[in-house]
Every structure is written in C-alpha cells, then in structure tokens.
Amino acid sequence: MNDRETLIRSINELLTRLEEKDLSFILQQAEVLDYNKAVLERRAAVEARAADPEASDPEASDSDMPSADSSAATKTVPRAAEPEPVYIEQTEHSKFFNICIGSARLFVDYQEVQALYKIARAASSAREAAPRLYRWLEKERSDILAEGNIRGLRSPVLSELYEALLDTFTAS
User: Fold this and answer.
1) Per-residue pLDDT tens for 9-21?
2) 133 and 170 in contact (C-beta within 8 Å)?
3) Fewest C-beta atoms under 10 Å: which of 57, 59, 114, 119?
4) pTM of this prediction?
5) Antiparallel, parallel or unpaired: β 96-101 and 104-109
6) Helices 126-140/110-122 angle, 10° precision
7) Terminal alpha carbon distance of the chain
C-alpha cells in the first residue's frame, strides 16, 4: 500500500467518528483545496502559454520574425501584441480574490467578482461581454482598467477576463 492509500484509509476511518457539522466543514475544506489546485493548474497553463507563444500558435514560424540582415525592402509586419495572461485566484480569505492580468494582481471582493461573473455569464460571447465588462469597470473600478492596461472597449484583456471568469466560476 502506498502513502496515498494509507492516508485515504486513515481519513476514512476518522470520518466515521465525526459529527455531521464536522463532516460538512471537512467537505468545504476539501472543495477549497480542489478549487485551489484547479487555479494553480490554470495559472501554470497560462504562464506556460505566455512563456512560449510559439507553442500555442502552430502557424507561427521563424519567417514571421525579421532576421538580423532584413532590409527596408523586405520588412515584415510585426505580429499583434498577445493579450496579457488573465486568471483569477481566491485569496486566503474566502471573500476576496485577485484578478491577475500579466504581472498586476488586482484585489476584488466577492460582490465585485460576482457582478463581473454575472456580466460574463449573461453574454453569449467574449465580443459581447467586453464592452459590458469595460463599462462596469469604468464605473466601479477604474483602477483595474489602469493597472490592468485595459485601454478601451476592444482591449484583448477583456476577452481574456471573460474567459477567466467563466473558467473560474460556476453558476450557483
């Protein structure tokens, strides 16, 4: 029997002796651990994608990049800037979250993230959600627009935020 199986057996033996309220608490803690694991996995995937954009873009090739000896006659058009990676993580206090945009970590409370999620969930696409998210942020949290480098309604960060909201939260 490996360590994992031993731990599971020990936990199961203890669970049979606990009261319902204690079991409920343990379930909540296990859900938090599972959620945090999913956030870490998403963050790692976003960071890996940001660190190696060529791996996530199969059409990209060395010919997209100008060579050291390129002249004005053979200029290549630079690629559009990739949007900043966006993910949402819960803080140690369950009522607060960080919206992470690139290297910026933007602190929001539960009501704010809930309002943003409702906007994202009501939209049928990122394109539809982007202006709605922008208007809400402009009215309620303009600091997020500034620190997240969200310069307008068409910022690609808004689409990333839409995806992060839907990937991170579920309807309750």
Assistant:
1) 998 998 899 888 8
2) no
3) 59
4) 0.54
5) antiparallel
6) 150
7) 39
Alpha carbon distance 131, 100 (integer Å)? 19
* Token digits of residue 14: 């203890």
Tokens of 95: 């009522």
55-68 pLDDT, tens digit per residue, is 544 444 343 333 33
What single letter denotes the amino acid at residue 33? L
Domain boundaries, the chain: 1-55, 83-172
Q: Which residues pair with 170 in a beta bridge?
A: none
**Secondary-structure percent of the chain, ordered helix, strand, coil, rounded to 5:** 60, 10, 30
Summarised one tens digit per residue, pLDDT across range 27-78 is: 777 776 776 677 677 777 777 776 765 654 444 434 333 333 433 343 333 4
Q: Residue 5 in contact with residue 13, Cβ under 8 Å?
A: no
> How much is the pLDDT for 120?
96
E strand map for the chain: 86-90, 96-101, 104-109
